[in-house]
Amino acid sequence: MLRCRTSYLIGLIVLMAGLLGCRELHAQSTRVRGQVTDAATGEPLQFVSVVFPGTTVGITTDKQGIYSLETRDTVSRVEASMVGYVSRTQPVTPRQYNQVDFALEAAQFGIDNVVITPGENPALPILKGVIRNRSRNNPAEYERYSCATYTKMELDLTNIKPHFRNRRMQKNFGFIFDHIDTSALTGQPYLPAMISEAVADYYHSRQPALSREVIRGSRVSGVEDSFTVAQFTGQLQGDINFYDNFIALFNVRFASPLSSMGESFYNYFLVDSLEVDGRKTYKIRFHPKRLSTAVLDGEVNIDSATYALQSASARMPKGVNVNWINHLLLENENQLLDEGVWFRKRDKVSAEFSVTQADSSKLVSFIGTREVAYSDIRIGAPIPREVLSMDNDVVIADDEAGSRDERFWEEARPYRLSDQERGIYAMVDSIQKAPLYRNIYTILNTIIGGYYNTKYIGIGPYYKMVSFNRLEGFRMQLGGRTTTEVSRRIRLSAYVAYGTRDEDVKGGGGVELSFNRRLTRKLSLTASHDVRQLGAGQNALADNNLLSSIFSRGDKRLSMVNRAEALYEHEWIHGLSNTLGARLQRVYGNRYVPLLRPDGSAVGSISSTAFHVGMRFSYHEKIYRTAFDKQYLGSRYPILAVGFTAGVKGLMHNDYNFYRLEGRLHYKLDLPPIGYSRITVEGGRIFGKVPYPLLKLHEGNGTYFYDAYAFSCMNYYEFASDTWLAFFYEHHFNGYLLGRIPLLKRLKWREVLVCKGVWGSLRDENNGSLPATQAVLLFPRGMSSVTEPYIEAGFGIENIFRLLRIDCIWRLTHRSPVEGQNIQNFAVNLSLNLKF
Question: Are 120 and 113 in contact, with CB atoms under 8 Å apart?
Fold first, then answer.
């Protein structure tokens, strides 16, 4: 559960600081939104061209006749025109939001006969030309280039109702209502809540393969820890490329209208040819054929001479199986350089996020906006050696990047901020001083982070304060840790717990020393006397967790463990790190997990002293870093981890000499439009004679919660190995199948296939299940080797209420009853998943 909350918190941060859409900030732009209808029938008109006369800014209406335009140019009129109708022009107020609807009257023509003959869709040859010339026009295919980028992001509150301005809100936040404006994306009023800016140098190369961004300046309103957020404020984190077959956004892969498979997803219409900057341009509108996959709706403008994308505007249509997003708008504008090649001029994405997907909802929603402007473009220029030697795709130029003065920003911006935009920085700082805001923030931070933070001490985690299990009975725990107000280099933590059944006091503590967080250099020292579940999966609910107690299926076999550990992590370059550690451990037997010699006599405890060295390698992985912690956000390349552990005899009573070598390979395979697969393969070998707690205890699941890296139908202490190979496979269809079934597709459920397996062996000297065994300890009743592979498979439905996942898993092997084990051949697991 903690992992779920932490991932959600990070998702929100990345959402606000790296993946939010882009749009021009509004106070200096003219925004127009409206609907075009037939004057006689009132029916919406599709494909109507709506432009600001005298500019190249224009768009055609969608199926509902809706359009929206924004420009920084000085304009005072908007025009709507369509073949067969009389064009109309209406005035607009510059630098404000305007609602302008058109009712067009049909034109009268004297036409004798019209003959229509079938033929090829005229849009398709143009699109084939785009695909044929993609390598020439797509900047991502250029051998080398560099440019300067200016990225501006904003997070706004929208759907604000009159009751929002109640007496208490006026008392605490009355000053913020002076900043209310209206969005062209939704036509709803919004209130700015966050603004950020970033200036960077961006470098691209095919040989060697490199996409690197050096952030020269970054600032976010109301955020003191600029380094944490600066990791996600640049252009690289939200790159939108219409030339790609699929556009990745919010972990969703939308089919691009310029995809080589575009005809499978879209119907295309050549609606106009026009002059743009003196060049003939084709305007092509596209509509999705079906909504069972992530698709868009909009138009592209194609240069007739080069078949290059001149501009694009695309929205996410209603009914697409994407969570939390009510509205999504992608815009792209390109420019022809003196070198005769095309390059980006401006990218723009806008998204409205909401708990509900009903436009009429009374709940407050968020509009995330992101705009990137490109300048100082250098095609073919050599990449500086110092940039090539950098070890991260996103690099903060220096420690001053987060504290640039106003003069720096005035020179770096491609346009000036308005007084209202400047005021957002001061407004957000003022909001944070309001008592109501501090109370709300404290509550949310406690729920998501797990700790109630005072200025110097964080109390928690709250979900471990009360729990229960068979060994301890009712358990109470109180813990805490220091906050970054005490130190950003040293963090102290401690906890104490008591069980009413075993009447034993437990506890532990630790010290974390952070030497560097740009590249992790961290030493952790921990010690504890507490109960643990040996053989639990790495994603299992934390021991002594209230939820793990409530949802336990009665298979907990806890052991009292004394453990002292030192671990140092040294990250050499981004994505490549080593760990070096030592662990002293003593495991005590009990009635649920006995420690018995082959002659039947009891052993009070077994102990081990082990030294560990590990390596983890990931390529182009996004990593979220804070003062003491970091979260891996995934990579599109395989991730490899290997480890070697050596047990040394003689340092503690009953120690054992052994060596343990293990490795893990994880890969997320994207297979749009049919979803993606998560594949994990791991294996290892233990050299030496050891008691069974030091063997590989294969991961069972003692709860009704789903663990991706544990076996749902396997019990704890059911299988052990000293040589093993395991795999964990999931394929997420993202609604590709259920989205085609009438009625069911309205539920927006998503299907998952699951298959897991493990094969292992035991040398006789470690097999405590053999008659007359020579192993150190007898195995618990029912535990054996897994020389016959264990396999389980099933299916799941996720996105139930956009939150819940239910899996049905069947055990395919080892189905026969075993003495000492309650064999479970079928399991139903639940889990919570916050996904777009």
Answer: no
Q: Which mean pLDDT values do the consecutive 10-residue runs of the chain (836 residues) have? A: 39 42 47 89 87 81 85 84 86 86 80 60 93 93 92 77 55 59 69 81 88 85 60 62 90 91 92 82 90 89 93 88 86 90 90 70 73 91 87 73 76 74 70 67 75 90 88 92 92 95 93 89 96 78 71 79 96 92 93 90 92 94 82 88 93 83 95 92 96 94 89 93 97 90 87 97 94 91 94 95 93 92 92 82
Q: Which two tokens stand for residue 670?
A: 């994207």
Instruction: Determine the pLDDT at residue 172.
Output: 54
Coil, strand or helix: which one is 448? Answer: helix
CB environment 236-261: b (16+ within 10 A), e (fewer): bbbbbbbbbbbbbbbebbbbbbbbee
Choose among 466, 398, 396, 57: nearest CA to 230.
396
Q: How far apart are CA 367 and CA 176, in angstroms?
A: 17
List, in sequence order, every beta strand (DSSP E) within 188-265.
Answer: 189-205, 210-220, 246-249, 252-255
pLDDT at 26: 39
Coarse DSSP helix, strand, coil percentages of the chain, rounded to the nearest 5 percent: 15, 45, 40
**Pair of tokens at residue 625:** 């870093």
Q: Angle at Cα 414 formed by Cα 335 and Cα 388, nearest 5°?
A: 75
Q: What is the distance between the alpha carbons of residues 74 and 92, in angstroms, rounded to a whole number?
A: 11
Q: Within the chain, how many helices (H) and strands (E) appear?
A: 12, 44
Q: How many other C-beta atoms are found inside a 10 Å radius of the C-beta of residue 659?
A: 13
Listed in sequence order, the residues at least 6 apart from 15 whose beta carbon sits closer than 8 Å to its beta carbon are 250, 353, 368
> Three-class SS of residue 767?
coil
The answer to whether 545 and 590 are in contact (CB under 8 A) is no
Q: Count CB-CB contacts under 10 A for residue 669.
A: 12
Find the largest Cα–Cα distance for the chain. Answer: 108
SS (H, E, C) 247-299: EEECCEEEECCCCCCHHHHEEEEEEEEEEECCEEEEEEEEEECCCCCCCCEEE
10 Å CB burial of residue 565 (0-12, 13-18, 19+) is middle
Structure confidence at residue 677 (pLDDT): 95
d(CA 509, CA 385): 46
Give the residue carrying structure tokens 């939820």: 547
Residue 109: the pLDDT is 58
Matching residue, tokens 């768009």? 59
Secondary structure of 533-559 in HEC code, one letter for each residue: CCCECCCCCCCCCHHHHHCECCCCCCE
Cβ atoms 559, 534 nearer than 8 A: yes
Spatial contact of 284 and 300, defined as CB atoms under 8 Å apart: yes
In this prediction the pTM is 0.83
Q: What are phi and psi of 494, to 5 degrees?
A: -165, 155
Return the closest-CA partner of residue 722 out of 813, 814, 648, 785.
785
Supply the pLDDT for residue 592.
86
- CA 35, CA 528: separation in Å to the nearest integer? 66
Q: How far apart are CA 635 and CA 667, in angstroms?
A: 8
Cα(181)–Cα(192) distance, integer angstroms: 8
Q: What is the H or E stretch that residue 679 is in?
A: strand 676-687
Tokens of 223: 């955020």
Q: Which helix (H) or strand (E) holds 441?
A: helix 435-449
What does DSSP say about strands 144-158 and 365-379: parallel, antiparallel, or unpaired?
antiparallel
Contacts of 348 (CB under 8 A, 6+ apart): 21, 22, 23, 24, 329, 330, 331, 332, 333, 370, 371, 372
The C-alpha atoms of residue 291 and residue 287 are separated, in whole angstroms, by 10
Query: How many whole angstroms separate alpha carbon 343 and alpha carbon 640?
Result: 36
**Partners of residue 198 on adjacent β-strands:** 151, 218
